[in-house]
Amino acid sequence: MSVQSIDRTFDILELLAHFESGLSLTEISEKIDLPKSTVHRLLKVLRERNYIEKSDSSNVNRLGLAFIELCSGLLNSLELKTEAQVYLRKLSQQTGQVVFLAIRQDGEIVYIDKTERHNEIRDYCFIGQRRPLYCTALGKSLLMGCTDDEIRELVDPASMTRFTDHTITDIDSLINEIHISRDRGYSIDNEEVELDMKCVSAPILDYRNIIIAAVSTSWDLSYTEDDVTERNVRLVMETARSISLRMGYRGQGFFMVDSGSSF
Known about the structure:
Layout: H1 3-16, H2 25-31, H3 36-48, E1 52-54, E2 61-63, H4 66-95, E3 99-105, E4 108-115, E5 130-132, H5 137-143, H6 148-154, H7 171-184, E6 187-190, E7 197-205, E8 211-220, H8 228-246
Antiparallel strand pairs: 1-2, 3-4, 3-8, 4-5, 6-7, 7-8
Helix pairs in contact: 1-3, 2-3, 4-8
């Protein structure tokens, strides 16, 4: 497609964005001063990719559902940070530890927010930093919404670097770990990235029952409280569910890929 065709395509899309009830081919042609044959050709491409829908009864064209999918990631990230902040602060207060919020992007996790104690001196991640999916609790939670084949596509076995003796470095072991995480509703990083550090994470779902993000907290294993892991698991899962509800989730439990059911 030429630059001119791309420009004309955007003219059509921007025009239809202002007409909720849609426009006919003739109306589009007249409003942007293009030949009907050109408009017909461009509309055909847009309809094939679901960016335009054509009503059989009224013969008008309107914007299609593909735009929702295209924009959902950006809109969810913007809304997610706003809706999650109060819950992240509460979780940090409850655990006394740093709390992270992350999304999946290009086969990695991306930290989009964090809350930590004012006196925290450990050098944790910064917003926008990327980490691997395979060895982080957040990454494993984000993979809980993927099939085994999708996990194999997202995680290159050659990239599975060993950070500690506990790091998972083969794809089959990772897939098994994701199955376990999915069954229990949360994931664990047990010294896989850094020795003496443990992290628990749970996925955040939206109104489509799709995992869009994950929340986690980390702590030093020298922390002496006996039930710290059990407590943090419970609090992180409660936080993930609270944020999910704010994002429109209405299920009884987390989305289950294999069974299609919840728990």
